[in-house]
Write a structure and sequence with these properties.
By secondary structure, the protein is α+β, with helices and mostly antiparallel strands. α2 packs across α3. It has one domain: SecB-like (Bacterial Protein-export protein SecB, Roll). Helix content is about 35%, strand content about 40%.
Length: about 160
Amino acid sequence: MAEEEKTAEKRLSITKIYMKDFSFESPQSPTIFRRDEWKPQTNLNLRSAHKAVEDDLHEIVLTITIEAKEADKTCFLVELQQAGLFEIAGYEGEELQAIVGSFCPNILFPYARESIASMIQKGGFPEFVLQPINFDALYMQSKQQQMTATAEDAEKH
């Protein structure tokens, strides 16, 4: 009975979703808008960070950077930090890591996607559709890379 009382009730809820930082640059404007063709190469950089704020409150920050280039000249550069405060209680170890590494970024992504698309369009560029991202697969890939790095370190010693 005493063990059952020690087991924490599992809770997961969104407390707040907010934009932490957002920047948009278009260093080639207005000349870039005088071109007949628009065929940039885009680079996407994605990362997330987790910080315990207090007790069961955690801040998750999803950072997305998109750079569009033509002929080695930057057409536009967007960086967004979409954040959220999540109440996460009763989860530990692998479960907690999966929540902050996959579940929470999945919640934040649609907000980031809409903000980025809107800003690029407001910057005078054609509609930009950021494709869905499989955060579960990215999380598993990250875990696999950590395991491989740990195994390689163990072999060296």
